[in-house]
Amino acid sequence: MLKVKDVHYTYTGKYQTNEVLHGVSCEFEAGRLYAVMGPSGSGKTTLLSLMAGLDTPTSGEISFDDCSLADIDRDKYRQNTVSVIYQSFNLFPLLTALENVMFPIQILGKTKSAVKNEAGKYLEIVNLDKDIFSKRPLMMSGGEQQRVAIARALASGGKILLADEPTGNLDSENGAAIVEIIKNLAHEHDYIAIVVTHSDIVAKEADVVYKIVDGRMEPASCL
Fold it and tell me: Does the model's pTM come out above 0.90?
């Protein structure tokens, strides 16, 4: 269970202070797909960054399995527990699809053959054919790149998937396929899957929809 309790976040710039989140509370459990929606500037990406351990709330608490992120090693949390999937894919341009997915596995000290086999399994989970494994990002379509990005996120071993507009750079067909993959990871592989999005496609497929307006969380809609 990932819990957000009465979280406030204030950004202090050079000339002004802006409270981005105002007492946000919500919960996320394994096996479900969540959509976090809201207009640009509403605070949803800030919330995702806080849940990823990339920053800390001004007040309030974020916890995973009843352990506050304020009390644990957030570097290890990001390394072992949570993975972020971005709109822009963020793949290593000079590495092949297989090598991109191998990268987070290699630091675990496994043999090269074991790392390669494991990476291949993650690429198969996201429905990529083996002829894609040897291609570099510029040789792939946007949909293929996003699948590789998801496979690399899975390779980290964490059970929390945070996706920031994962369909934003894709056409509707590829976007729907990516949503189906993330939904399957939640339902069939017991991930906590949270998607920050503007997409109605994601909202229709999600088990729970949260909406943020002006930094405040509205009551959840369960589908």
Answer: yes
